[in-house]
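We now fix the convention by which a protein and its fold are recorded. Here is one such record, which you should read through line by line:

>
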Amino acid sequence: MKNSMILKITLIALTVLSVFFTVKAQSIYTQESIKKVMDKVNTYQLNHPWTEFDDNWIRGTYYAGVMSCYFATGDETYLDQSEKMCSSLNWTLPAVPAGPSSSGGNMLTMGQTMIQCYMVRPEKYKIRSIIDHLEDPKIKNPVSDPYSWYWEGGVRFVDGLFTGPPALAMLYSVTKNEKYLQWMEAYFWDVYGKLYDPTEDLFFRDKTMFPEKLEERKNDPEWKGNKQVTANGKKVMWSRGNGWAIAGLVRILEYLPMDHGNYKRYELLLQRMAKSLKERQSEEGFWYPNLADPDDAHVKETSGTGFITYGLAYGINNRILDKEEYLPVVKKAWKSLTDAVSEEGKVQWGQLVGDRPSDVTKDDSHEYVSGTFLLAAGEMYKMNLKDDKAQKKMDIADVRKDVMDYIEKELQGVDKPYGYYRQYPGDGEKYGLYGSLDIALIRTIMGEDFKTSLTDKQRREWIDHINSFALKDGSYKSTWHNVPHRNGMVISALGPLGGKKKYPTKFYEDFNTVDKLVLYLDNEVDWAQLWGGSLQIWGGIIPYSLSQQATKKWKRAVFNYLNENLDPTTGWWKKGVKHTNSFQPVGGGAHMWPIYQLHNKPFPYPKNVIDGILSLQLEDNTWYGANENIRDGAYLDLDNLYGYAYMKTLAPGYREKEIEESVTRYGDYFLEDFYPNFYSNKPNGHKLLALVSIVGLLQELDPDRFYDSEGIDWTDIFSDPRLYMVKETECLQPECGK
C-alpha cells in the first residue's frame, strides 16, 4: 500500500513536470514570449556596448538585428534607437583605410540600417552620404576598384556576403537605379564562384580554407589537423561563415524584385544551403563551429546558429522553404538560442571575432552575437506560431480549377472564335465586351501567361473580339460602367494578350494639359461618391500617366493635386468633402493608390489608412457586409485587403499584429461563408474577377493559410503591372489593332 501510494505521487509529480516543461517549450514560440526575449537581449546589449564608438560591421550587425525587430513588431523603440545610432554617425559610412587589408564591403554594414531607416521615414540626408561613398574616387568602392573593392587582406571572404550586397539591394529598392543591382550581382556571384563548394552546398570562409591533400590526410593516423583539414581528415566549413552567407542571401531576396533574372537563382541557393544545414544540425538545436566536422570544436555556438535560424525562418515565412520540412529545424534552433540567453539578456556561447571554427566558452559574446539573435527573433515573431493551430486552409490551385471549370461550363462561347465569353451565365447578354475583358483579367491574375498558353490564332481572335467593340473616338461600346472604366479594363486585357487598341483614345484630351487636368479632377470626379467617382482616375488619369503622351510636368501636377487634396488626419480623399457613406473613401482610394505604386511615389499617409481600414471592419469580419457580399461581388472587401497589402509596404511593422488578426478574421469568413456559397447564385464574370483578386491578396497577406500547391503567385486587379501596359497597347495612329 505504501509503495503504491509513493508510485502514485511519483507519477503525479512526473505528469505535472511534463506539463510544465511542455508549456514552457511551447511558450517560447509565441509572439508575446519572443517580444520579451528580444527586448531583454536588446536592452542588455544597448547597456553593454563593446566600445563607445563603432561605425563598422560589429555594431552594424547588431543594428541589422535591431531593425529586424522593428519591422517584425512595429515597436518604434527599435526604430528610434536605430535612428539615434545613425544620427550619432552623422548618417555617414566609415572611410575605407588605404591598402588591401580592409574591405569596402564591410563599410556598408551600418549603411543597411541607414537605408532601412530611410525606408520608414524617407529623408534624403539619411542615404546621401552612402550614395556619395559608393562613387567617391578616393574611397575603395565599385567605381574606384570594381574588381576587388570588397576583398579583405587580398582575398574574397564569405562574411562579405552579409556586409555588402544587401545594402546594394536596399539602395536599389529606394532609388530604382539599376547600377546598384549590377554591383551587387558582380560582388555576390564572384564570391560565390570562388568560395562555394557544390559537393557540400556550403561556403568556405576564404581560399585559405581550401582543403589540401584531404584524401591522404584523412587516412593518416598521425595527422593532427590544420586550418584546411581537421584532425579527423575533414573539411573546415565555418558555421558563422555560412551564417554570414545565408543571412546575406535572404536580405538580398527581401529587396530584390521577384522578376529579376537571377531571383530564382538566389532562391535555389537558399534551398540548397538549407538542405545541407538541416542535415548538420546538432541534436540540441545548435550548429557547431565546423559544419563539416562536429568533433572539431565540439561545442554549442550561438552566432552561427542565430544567423542560420534567421535564414531558414525567412525561407519558411516567404514560402521558399517547405514549412513542414523546416519548421521542426527552426523550432529546435530557436529553443537552443533562447536557452543560451542569460537572465540579464546576454546571448552566451557566441564565438568571438575570428575567421574559422574555434572553441567557445559560456561567457563568450559580442554585439554581433546579439545582432544574429535579434535577426532570428524578428523572423520567429513573424511566424506567429501561437496561431499555428488546426485552422482551415485553402489550396488556391483548387480555386483556379473551380473558376476555369465554371468559365468553361457557364460563360465560354460555343462554336465561337476564341475569347468570346458571356457576361452572364445562361441566356443573359451574350458575348458582350465585359465578358471578354473579365475573363482575360481573371486568367492573368491566376497566373496564366497567354503568350505561352495560347496559340497566336487564339490570341488574335480574342484581341479582335475586344476591338470589335471599339468606337472611332477610342472608347469602347458597352452598357456596363463608364467610358474610363471600360478604357482601363480594355488595357488590362489587351496587355497580357499582346494586343493594341484599335483607335487613339480621344477622351484623354479632356485632361491632357495641367490646366485641363485640374478642372477635370475638380468637376468630373464625384468626391462625395468617391467609390464610383474615382473610376475617372483609375481608367483615365492612370492610363494617361503611363502613356507616351504624358509629360513630366503633367505627372507632377497629378501628384501635387492628389497630395494636396488628401486629409492628413485620415489619409482619405478629399479634405473638406463629406462622403455619402463609410464605403466611399476606401473604395475611392483603391482606384487611386495604383498611380503611386506604378510611378514609385510613396503615398503620404499609410499609417492613417491602416488605422481607418482596421476601424471599418464589421463584426461579421467583412467590410461591406456578409449578407451583401455574394450578391455584390465583395469589391469593397477587395479594396480594403488591397489597402492592407499596399500600405504595409510603406509602413512595415505598423500595427502588424492587428492587421494579421483582421486578415485572419476575414479569412475565416471567406472559408466558412463566402467561398462555399459563391457559385450558388450563378455569378457573372465581374464577380469572378472580385473573387480571384481577393484570393490573390489573401495569398499575399496570409500565405500559410492560402497557398498554391502548384507554386503560382496570384496577383490582383490593382497592383499587377501587367494590367497597366499602356505604352504597349495604346494606339497613336488613325487606326491600329491589326
